[in-house]
Amino acid sequence: MKAALSNFGVPHRCRALVSGLLGIALLLAGCGAGGSGDNKAKKAPGDTTCDGRIDGTAHVTVWFHQGPPGEVGTLQSQVKEFNKAQNKVRVELVKLPEQRPYADLVESAAASGDLPDLLDFDGPNLYNYAWSGKLKPIDSCVPESVREDLLPSVRRQGTYAGRLWGIGTFDSGMGLYVRPSVLKKAGVRIPKGIGDAWTADELTGILAKLRKRGYRTPLDLGLVYAARGDEWSTYGFAPAVWSAGGDLIDPKTFRTADGFLNSPESVKALTTMQGWAKAGYTEPDKDEKAFDEGRSVISWAGHWRYPQYTKAFPGDVAIVPLPDFGNGTVTGMGSWQWGITSGATDGDAVWSFLAYLLQPRQVHRMSVANGGIPGTDKAVKLSPKYDVGGGEHLFIEQLRAGIARPRPQTPAYPAITSAFGRAFTKIMLDRASVKAALDQAVEAIDKDVAAHDGYPQKGP
């Protein structure tokens, strides 16, 4: 089809749009559940979210967090193009504030029965939303071909109690951004991959070397976000606890944090990090520009910093793994996902829009707009920066190799991240006793779990 269009002189940008619109029409012509034959979705017992039909003209309301301008603008364009290409499903996009106000609005809407048809949410909140009945399982909607194309990390993030409840069009990456030119002058080795990470003690020595070379605060940990109580504290620094052999909660039963979050391993990892702060090696919670402005040479950060940092230092930015605190390097994963809510009246109509967002070109388009890691294998192939030798290859390598771990997959996650975030702030900014801060976090988490009878999988 593209070749035929090109023969008539259609510009490249228009050819891509026409191809995308025809794809939507063909998708809806097939069935709401997306595909036939070997690509049919597999229903789990009791899963009736999709039945392969769209009755009449369906109206789908979508809630979306107010993220970066490029992300919002891209989704607005995708909605407009989807609506223009067919007349069976009309999508209405509602933008809402990000972070805690967004989560509060979801809770309020759920209580009043006003949830939208399609909900956008930060990945780890999925488990609580699924457990509490806010979402419908989507196994019956997702064709096997789509499921197989998803990155393993995206599938894992979207699964709870053996069912698929959410899908993300992008995932996240995290590591240490470094200035190779500075490190080489200081005689510091640059790790080559996930099997070659600095140890935590090695990093301590590197920070001391960089201090002697005039970098007063050589390490930026993004403490400005920790001071605000953002999700960054858990996403960014749970990997240090995991790498040391600790955890945020018992990973098998999710019944207690005692002996895990306050274990000797967890205490040791966070004591090491607190030592960096006490020595003055870490940038204080002042702003977000320590690496860009050259105050810091190493930045513990996510994929969203790549465009900013490479613009500040063209050709002099590399990404290396997070430090090994004793049990190998570990990194975080997971980002915003989509889920069909319990209030959606036509799951097939909602899925038809989700299926469009998961087309390789659309996934690539969104990842270019927000810097996220494309959520499907086909879309990853459209970005050479994830190839071996590419600037962000480490991120996709970590997601595929299992180095990246999801935050605790339990309905108790909101209580876990709140407690850990408070503890991390006390440890790093207030210089509180590490063990005492973690003991307090354990008490808060265990109290929440007990109040919900251990979060039985059948729901509240």
Please tag this protein with its features.
4-stranded mixed beta sheet; 44% helix; 19 helices; alpha/beta; 460 residues
Mean pLDDT over the full residue set: 90
Q: How many DSSP E strands?
A: 14
Query: How would a crystallographer describe the biggest sheet?
Result: 4 strands, mixed
Main sheet strand line-up: 2-1-3-12
Cα separation of the termini: 51 Å
Question: Helical stretch count?
Answer: 19
Low-confidence runs of at least 5 consecutive residues: 1-27, 29-38
Strand content: 5-15%
Looking at the structure, what is the overall shape? globular
What does this 3D model show about the protein?
The structure is a single chain. The protein has about 450 residues and is α/β, with parallel strands linked by helices. It is about 45% helix and about 10% strand. The chain has a 4-stranded mixed β-sheet. Strand 4 (about 160) and strand 5 (about 165) form a beta hairpin. Helix 2 (about 10-30) packs across helix 3, helix 3 runs antiparallel to helix 15 (about 360-370) and helix 11 packs across helix 18 (about 415-430). The N and C termini lie far apart (about 50 Å). Residues about 1-25 and about 30-40 have low confidence and may be disordered.
